[in-house]
Design a protein that fits this description.
FAD/NAD(P)-binding domain, globular, 2 domains, four-stranded parallel beta sheet
Length: 369
């Protein structure tokens, strides 16, 4: 009976594996990919899609088409639980067992809302899943037709920065009325970033007329309003929680070893610390020896090692170690053609910064589309 490689998700860390799927098939292995959509959206270009710089087709990979064209099987569904003793995966709302010999997880992450959102609240959007930004875009343009609206973005990091800037671009170019845009950044806007990045980001947003509220953290989101911990209340017609991401809950739900963030705990081979035939990459893992930031660059760096180790595990050969590498390039898309570039101690902002990001992103997309 053929050995079976099962992939959960067709995200950034699985790109090289998917591109070489035919090599697994040619060696006599069966390959199946589980994903809740036929497409995978590139998160680095998500804010640009919200702002209208890119269309949905510009930033997504046709995962199902690729898998089936290379001889693999594609299952449209959401992986819910893993049973490592039976070596099978269960889908959400299904008792069907999908067996594997080797499993690789690129299950992604989500933006937690439960601690903030109180009750049934309309027009709340998160940056993940990326396709949710399409619905957000339509809602913004629809509401802006009829009245002056206010949009609140909750969070102090790069995600809130990029969402705010690209909403400004969207409305400047396509909306009938310009909304009031507020970023609720707590008391430490762009915390953890170098001082120059924080200064440039604030200046660019404020020059666009975007208001940064840093008088206190948002305690709860209710219908049409945001309530701060200091009692202040702000009205908002559309709200974006951008409070960071957490790994998929599938690992905690499955009783697998996880890190403090809930990610699949893996060793230097991107392999579960307890189950040698389970691997993972991207936002959903906790890299035991060197905890990693939730940035796409690590998923991209994990690509070749994950591909090599999945093949090696199937063939019962030695595995390769993953090295996270050194510092990485940061480029933020602030909408309207504005960007911030930072590498080592070299930081600058402007149109050229965005052009560099656009070139890199489009090149990455072309390589795997």
């Amino acid at each position: 009976m053929k050995k079976h490689l099962l992939l959960i998700g067709g995200g950034h860390a699985h790109m090289v594996t998917l591109a070489n799927l035919d090599k697994f098939i040619d060696k006599g292995f069966a390959v199946t990919v589980i994903q809740p959509s036929e497409y995978h959206y590139y998160s680095g270009m998500g804010p640009g899609m919200l702002g209208g710089t890119y269309s949905a087709d510009d930033i997504r990979f046709a995962t199902r088409k690729l898998v089936e064209s290379k001889g693999g099987a594609f299952i449209l569904g959401k992986a819910y639980r893993i049973d490592p003793s039976k070596q099978c995966v269960y889908l959400e709302d299904s008792a069907e067992e999908i067996h594997y010999d080797v499993l690789s997880c690129n299950a992604g992450s989500f933006v937690p809302q439960s601690e903030l959102v109180q009750g049934e609240v309309r027009n709340v959007f998160t940056a993940k899943p990326i396709e949710a930004l399409l619905a957000a875009k339509d809602t913004i343009l629809t509401l802006c037709k009829n009245k002056d609206i206010t949009i609140g973005i909750v969070g102090s990091g790069p995600s809130s920065l990029e969402i705010a800037g690209n909403i400004h671009q969207l409305c400047r170019q396509q909306a009938e009325n310009m909304p009031v845009i507020r970023v609720f950044a707590g008391q430490n806007f762009m915390s953890g970033r170098p001082t120059k990045i924080r200064r440039l980001a604030r200046t660019i947003l404020e020059n666009k007329g975007i208001k940064i509220v840093d008088s206190g953290y948002v305690e709860k989101i209710t219908e049409g309003s945001l309530v701060l911990e200091n009692g202040g209340t702000f009205q908002a017609d559309i709200i974006f929680p951008a409070v960071g991401v957490k790994p998929s809950l599938i690992f905690a739900r499955s009783g697998l070893p996880i890190g403090p963030d809930g990610g699949l705990q893996v060793n230097d081979y991107l392999q579960s610390i307890r189950y040698s035939n389970i691997f993972g990459g991207g936002d959903c893992i906790y890299f035991e020896s060197h905890p990693l930031d939730k940035v796409g660059v690590y998923a991209v760096r994990q690509n070749p090692v994950l591909y090599a180790n999945l093949m090696a595990c199937l063939e019962e050969k030695p595995l390769e170690q993953f090295s996270p590498g050194g510092t990485y390039l940061l480029i933020y898309n602030l909408g309207d053609g504005d960007g911030i570039f930072s590498k080592w101690s070299f930081t600058f902002s402007g149109k050229f910064a965005f052009k560099i990001k656009d070139y890199i992103d489009r090149k990455f997309i072309r390589a795997f589309q």
